[in-house]
Design brief:
Blueprint: H1 2-37, E1 43-51, E2 56-61, E3 72-78, E4 92-100, E5 103-111
Parallel strand pairs: 3-5
Antiparallel strand pairs: 1-2, 1-4, 2-3, 4-5
The chain binds copper (II) ion (CU).
Length: 113
C-alpha cells in the first residue's frame, strides 16, 4: 500500500514536470501558428525595375503587414527568377513577400487586373 502511494506521487511529479516543460513549447507553437497564418498575404505593388540577370525586382509597394513594413520602393529577390518572366516596368502587381534568412524575397507575383 505504501509502495503504490510512492509510485503515485512519482507519477504525479513526472506529470507536473512534463507539464512545466510543454507549456512554453505549446505557446511557442501557438505563436508560430499565427505567424504562419499571416505570413503570406497578397500585397499590392507596382514594378519599377526588373533585373532578370540578378533575379531581382524593384517594387513600389503598399504596407506589408506580414513584414511590418510601411509603403516604400525597394528591391526584392525573386524566390524563382522565372517569377519575373512577363513583368515589366509600370506593371501593377499582386505579390507575396517574405523575409528569408534576412533577405526580402518575392515568393509569388502576378499582374493585377
Ligand atoms: Cu519595403
Amino acid at each position: 500500500m505504501k509502495f503504490s502511494h510512492v509510485l503515485a506521487a512519482a507519477a504525479l511529479a513526472t506529470a507536473l514536470g512534463a507539464h512545466a516543460q510543454t507549456a512554453p513549447q505549446s505557446s511557442a507553437d501557438h505563436a508560430s501558428h499565427h505567424t504562419t497564418a499571416s505570413a503570406a498575404p497578397q500585397s499590392q505593388g507596382e514594378v519599377r525595375k526588373v533585373d532578370r540577370e540578378q533575379g531581382k525586382v524593384t517594387l513600389r509597394h503598399g504596407p506589408l503587414l506580414n513584414l511590418d513594413m510601411p509603403a516604400m520602393t525597394m528591391v526584392f529577390k525573386a524566390a524563382d527568377p522565372t517569377l519575373l518572366g512577363g513583368l515589366k516596368e509600370g506593371d501593377k502587381v499582386q505579390f507575396t513577400a517574405e523575409k528569408v534568412n534576412g533577405v526580402f524575397v518575392v515568393t509569388a507575383i502576378q499582374e493585377a487586373d
